[in-house]
Predict the 3D structure of the following.
Amino acid sequence: MKKSALWLVALAGATLACSAPQSADSTGGDSGGAPRQGGVLRLRSTTDITDFDISTAPKTSARSVASYVYNRLLSNRTGPDVPYEDFTLAPELAERWELSPDATAFTFHLRRGVKFHDIAPVNGRELTSADVKWSYEYWSRGPEFQGKKLPASQYQWFFENLSSIDTPDPWTVTVRFKSPFAPFMSYAASQYNAIAPHEVFDADGHFKEKAVGTGPFMLDAASSQTGSRWVFRRNPGYWKEGLPYLDTLQELVIVDDSSAEAAFRAKQIDFLDAPSCHEAERLRQAQPDTGYFEGVSVAPLNIYINTRVRPLGDVRVRKALALGINRDEIITALQCGKGEPALSGALSDTFTVDERRKMLRHDPAEAKRLLAQAGFGGGVDIEWLYTKEYGELYQNTVTLLQAQLRQVGINLNLKLTTRADVQAARRTADRHMLTATTKTLESDVESFLYQMYHPNSTNNYGGIS
């Protein structure tokens, strides 16, 4: 692999703020820490949902659908006693599971009595192993979906070397692979590996317009409005007794950060991801009743680089790009010093902070030397696509990167466009541009390394060998 193909810019402390909900049906008050039933939680979404099929890309995000509407076979342990970095597998639709000694067969035993949402055309029927088989064949674009002119699935790599899916009875399913594929245990817990009903596809030939699952919330299509808001109601038949606590989740589509702040001040949204620590402090001063807490972002900024064409096809230019980035300056200027440099494809504890700083050092002199050696002693122009839909912090980061790289002779020509265009451009082999989005380790390290770097992966947008 070409180690200089991708870089993450910075892992920074995310600053968050929230105000007390003012919904008419909110319970409000102090419950003494005990969960209370009911209420409405209103969240901001920076992008509209234009397509409910979580497998296809590029398109605007439908992540809300994955987390609210669907379940998967496994999940991860959560709760106050679970450390933040702990990703221990836990049951979800599967009560228990077995892994063959050679890691080629995965058998899941489903819990009984789980029902899909009582929405047409599924109408609340019980989930069985046939639904797992159908879903996995759809996400992996198995043989039965060939010839249907479906777009490629962005999660086909969850099923690399899939051999067969067996359903010996309604409550048992075995997923078999041609060779050992241990990471599939983690992939079975990914929110994007959801179990969906075939009736929606049978009726429409796609999942673009409907979202029906077994999850805690149901899409309220009648109350939702494209470009404005998406409403999810409590699933009264949810299989987890007593959950969810909320009656309603509302996602208001607010692209502009200033508009989102105005909505927060007016208590039209209950939770705000502040664009920077400076803005968070200003909000605290302006609204003393605002609750405030800090967390750690597990999705650092990942720069996508097309290695197929000049100038980025030259490893010296890519190295110069890496050496021209001053990550500590980004952390200090935009996150009040609360952050660490992040290494592409590595968990936060794989290397110490000092080790990461040595690998991701800022060396303008060496960057200039490499550019000159590559024939760009007079500088090089590179297009960078960005969008306001990623928020103010993203835009400020890109602007600071532009200033840093200009000092070594790399001139970023920033082009404002849409999120969908940014996603589409990443997949265009003959464009030499740069773009960046936040990127997480989906389930484990292998999930990142395979999808981003393996020559056969459909997500290897950079053309890495």
The first strand starts at residue 7 and ends at 8. Residues 387 and 422 are 8 Å apart (CA to CA). The first helix runs from residue 63 to 68. Confidence is low (pLDDT under 50) at residues 1-31.
